[in-house]
Every structure is written in C-alpha cells, then in structure tokens.
Amino acid sequence: MADSRLEPVVLSEDEWRTLTGWARRRSTAQGLAMRARIVLACAEGGGNVAVAARLRLRLRLRLRLRLDRKTVARWRSRFLAHRLDGLSDEPRPGVPRTITDAQVEEVVVRTLEEVPAGSTHWSKRELARQVGISPTSVAGIWRAFGLQPWRTQNFKISTDPLLIDKIRDVVGLHLAPPAHAAVFAVDEKPQIQALQRSAPVLPMLPGVPKRRSFDYVRHGITSLFAALNTATGKVIGKLSARHRAVDFRDFLDEIDRQVDPGLAVHLICDNLSTHKAPVVHAWLLAHPRFTQHFTPTYSSWINQVERWFAELERRCLERGNFCSLEALKAALEEWIKVWNEDARPFRWTKTADQILDRICRYCDRISNPAH
C-alpha cells in the first residue's frame, strides 16, 4: 500500500472549485474550511511535514490549534480514499435527539405564516413557549433554515413611466461605456453638518470601544457636489454653501475644466429639480460634448456615486468631530484627495435584464391574492 505522506493529491477542476469555496468559509480552524485548506496545500506538493509547516506559516495559527503531520496525513488519506465525501464528519455517539420533525416543522410554519397576538414578529422565547421546546432549540432551527424574524428591510418600487428605458440606459453606461468618452455618476450630498461633541472623545482601549458624548454643538453646514468616474473610480468634488441650480452649473464648469477636452462626457444624475433647471439646460446646450442621463425615480441605488457617499459617511463623517465649518471642509477635501490617490472603481455586475426580471418577480408576488 502506498504511503499517504508521499502519494500526490491530484484535483479535478470541480474538486478544486469546491475546496476553494469551502476554504473561504468563516469556520473554526479544525472544521471543514481547515480540511479544505489542507487538501489544497497537499495538491501543491510536498510531504505531510512540509504541508503542515507551510500551512502554519501561511495561516499563522496559534500553538493551541493543532496542525501537525498527523493531522495532514489523516485528511490526505481520507481525501484519497473517499474524495470530497471523506472530509465530512463521521457519525458520532451522543444524546438521542429530543426534538421531533413535527416540532421543527411547527417552528418553521409558525415563523413564516403566523405572528403572536399583539406583536409583529416572534421572539425565540415566545415561540419556544408555544411549541414546547427551549429558546436555544428555536434559535438553532431558525439558523438552520435561514430565518431572521427580527430583521426587516425597506424598499421602494419606482413609478417612473420610463423605468425600463432608463434602467437599460444607465446600466448600459456601467457595463459598456461608449468609446472616447468619460462616464460620471453625479450627485450632491447636501447639508453636511459640522458637529462637535460637547465633551472630549474618549479613545479606544483594550476591551473598551471609543466613546463620545451623545449631544453635540453644530457649527454650520456645507454641501458637497461629487462626480465619480465609473471607469477609474476617481472623484471630482466641489464644496458649496448651498445646492442650487447655479451651484450645480458651477460644478459642471469644474468637471469641464478637469476632463480631457477630446472626450465626450456622460453624466448620470437623479431627478432632482436642480439637475433639470433652465440654467443647467442652457449650460448643456452651450457644451454639446456633455450628455445627461437620468435614473428612474426612487432609484438612486443605480447611481454609483451613492456607493461612494456611503463610504464617505462611514469612514469620514460618522465618527468625525469637527470644531468648525472650516475643519469639516478640510476633512472632506482631504478625504477626496486620499481616495483619489488609491482610487478603484466599483464593479457593476447586474445586467438590465436581471434587474427587470427581479422587479417582475416581486410584482408577480405582491399581485398574488394572498397579499
């Protein structure tokens, strides 16, 4: 019989794809993810000792997590004998199961089809009392079936009569931009507040998060116009005290100055009246290389600059402490500068047909008599 320490591991394309997916899971070091990493490392070559050393160096495991040649040998031999099936856990002795299939079904059905009296959704303790099992068991069933009754999400379906045409237009610019042209996702973030906490911010300590006072002093507001180049990820920004149509026109002048004169410019904008004002229309007529594209109403999610605004809010503004309006403006300008030094575009993946199909599926679902 061949020595499993020396027998090479050869993976098929499907096995490699499956093992790679398992290895990326957030799992314990001794779970399925680690077994997949061991087999992938064995496929790279080397004996069990070499594979164990390579994995320890690569994963920087702590000493209490056991990964030695015996562990590698076990999973190498299990894989060679049973392939992917050999990496799963074998049946283990334990306490007999106490929850019946009927109780599992009752938990799932009640969660999906009923609500408790006087409430909008189930809690695990309330449902446990109704079914006659422990709250921990209810939580385990919810986790197994992917049920999260405490969560909710908001949405809004566009009522734009040109919804289909606008989606195809904007998504087409994301997926197949025109040649010899620059595509910008344009919008403004109005009334950004310069907030200073009423007490000094306490720094983070081991085991203690950063702390700040609940109340604050407001030192003024500013508005930020931003144009995200969808191909490069770089942003053209301009601060303004207000966000009127003339301010937007001035921002268009800034874009015109910074973009190569030989390129056509396509602007993706939402339906704010500022973007459609006569002064903006006159400016566009005087600059024929600019073309304006509008997103459907209630569909700002299709404008990529909104994703950039989310990064700005999360990484610059949400925890910011600004002692003056000038400090806020300096922080915004510094953020744009730092972003552009290492700018990367957001990758758009959904096609227009996929978006429209999903909207149609939702409309069919809510048209059902049950709703």
From TrEMBL:
Residue ranges of the TM segments: none
Annotated Tc1-like transposase DDE domain residues: 202-329
Q: Which InterPro entries match?
A: Homeodomain-like_sf, MscS-like_channel, RNaseH-like_sf, RNaseH_sf, Tc1-like_DDE_dom, Transpos_IS630-like
One Pfam family, short name please? DDE_3
Q: What is this protein called?
A: IS630 family transposase
Q: Which organism is it from?
A: Nonomuraea spiralis
